[in-house]
Hints:
Number of domains of chain A: 3
Oligomer: homodimer
CATH superfamily of the largest domain in chain A: MoaB/Mog-like domain
Amino acid sequence: MRVALLNTGTELLLGDVQDAHLAFIAREILPLGLRIEEQRTVPDSEAIRRSLAELFQRCAILFVTGGLGPTSDDITREMVADLLRLELRQSPDLLASLKRRLRVRGIKWTSGIARQADVHVGAKILPNHNGSAPGLYLCANINPQIQSPHLFLLPGPPRELQPMFRTFVMPILRSIVPASDLIERRLYKIANKGESLVEEAVGQHVLAIPGIELGYCARPCEVDVRIVGKAEAIERADAVIKSILGPAVFSATDETLEEVVVKLLVQRNQTLAVAESCTGGLLANRITNVPGASAIFSAGYVCYANQSKIAMLNLDSQLIEKHGAVSEQVARALAEHARACAKSDYALATTGVAGPSGGSPEKPVGTVYIALAGPGETIVKKLFFPTDRETFKLIATQAALELLRKKLIAT
Amino acid sequence: MRVALLNTGTELLLGDVQDAHLAFIAREILPLGLRIEEQRTVPDSEAIRRSLAELFQRCAILFVTGGLGPTSDDITREMVADLLRLELRQSPDLLASLKRRLRVRGIKWTSGIARQADVHVGAKILPNHNGSAPGLYLCANINPQIQSPHLFLLPGPPRELQPMFRTFVMPILRSIVPASDLIERRLYKIANKGESLVEEAVGQHVLAIPGIELGYCARPCEVDVRIVGKAEAIERADAVIKSILGPAVFSATDETLEEVVVKLLVQRNQTLAVAESCTGGLLANRITNVPGASAIFSAGYVCYANQSKIAMLNLDSQLIEKHGAVSEQVARALAEHARACAKSDYALATTGVAGPSGGSPEKPVGTVYIALAGPGETIVKKLFFPTDRETFKLIATQAALELLRKKLIAT
């Protein structure tokens, strides 16, 4: 079945907001053997009508996102009604639930809000538990006189669309997709290795397996190897990849590096503290994004300023003066002192020059020391990632987490 | 001039990676009076050829991203050569610079890498200072026998594309765009207010100004009001919006809330510490994402565990026992102790239930206390954001930063 996604929203084409729906929906529907074959973005204008008309002809399932809200630029509902010559009727139930929602949250009623209770005759309401605009499902050829695909009108904000999709859209998709052969997608994530090296290692061996589609995706300090195919071919490719890459693969089940590290610590009943200079809290933030991190996360010291390295972690001011805050010695001391202060099993520390300013000939922007203090020893690595500030922080935390992961799986 | 963007990459349609190019390019080209009128995403397959052929007919400027790398699924260069019947020739200069780049970084040479030195006859090379694959510019109708737009082939990774776009693509665009009337886009960002309320306040007044396109974008704990139009109309709308919304607008120049807060603190020569329980480092991370934050950021205490609240910030264990870690009293103590420990002018603290587990009938998931300790007084706010863990953290930090901003502009 041909599937397409139409994102509506002038804010997308003006760059005020980035689309998250394509990635989310693609991953959700893949196990049904469905792939999005075309995705388009159009502004809140007549372009919606034109694209809808074109896509109605071409696809069997069409997801449309955005334009269901209360403001004057929300016109998707009306354009679909117009194209399919369907009447919009106010749903008393929806109106009552909208009023209730606003009352509970103490939000004032404005005139546009009631439009969100309008429903195409024959459409199914997809309840929105995280916002006011409901989604709508219009089955294929809902008006028998006009050719149309299975049409899902979904709200723009990802935190509204995503739970709605899982709870209400997926069951409908399962009922309309023929019980054809299921396919599978697997992702192998590798930290600290280049894309070319990874391809050279596994490429030809995986491509020798019939029925496997192979792809790579390079991210900051990470390469993802992706295979798609039927179950039997996937199992063969899986064995090949695992035998070649071994423990370099930090996840074969689409976990983040922080999820893997938290899981390893939980399994070992061990704890972690972090002392962050140049990464400024990102390492703690990534770790605490993982549900259940409270079991293993002892403390985070964001000691950006030299004074705070001394005050928070009792660093010797002379050590900083002698070697500089960005040095192997200070990285080592930060990790060891954080481990001692927090009484944790492990401690990671980062100190470096994130830029854009603050570099010097000996320590240019991009220089970073990563230290790991553990029960046995302290490891310090010097790395160099000359890039923008936020990518630098991301790569430095990635390198720190990978250092800890390697230590944990080796002990 | 009609502008389109074609993103290539199976990883985009499988959901392994999210597009960032549409937003970036849209914002860069708007001041030239250019808007992307259509954006498409297609997989690394024959679909690229089909979309290129369709878009060649329709637009005057076409940006194509991805598919220029060294791996077997990188086929954009070859498909363009094929469609435009242009020969690809290896550039000795590019080959030499690729070899140099790999040598410096200690990356092994693999056979696919040399393809990145292939250039269409007549194309202009757009140097890549952040990766190996160069971009290419093919002027309109580069092969006089085939209709084609101004065509920019750009690398997939945003950190490669973005500097290349600013340095090499923008000058070319300025030379091909007619010196028509420039347009302008302005964005007004408001924290802690609903979209409907904002529209009710400003909507009709702004729409009464001819030539203004008005839009809204709702984000977690933020509404952005966007106006687009010619300079004179923009100035009128700007005055109207500012007079109605006043200090509720935290930025009219597209800054983030953390940028605004850091700037206010720098102007006042004041410092900030943070004590984060439920936000787990995100607040420190947001603040330290701002270049120059080191001047104002004293210290960050990520005291997720109760024990770390006591050890890092000398909280009274009985206070936590009596009121619970998620309480007005503990929030207040965290902020006041952080301010004292870090000897800062202000301190923000967060404590709450991020979920998905850990809630109780009195303190359900989504409950959060935000505290601000300052020279005069300590303010504590109880808020309720029942949502997913990461959005919760984002909203809680947004509320904390807005609390500080309001305090700073009022004093």
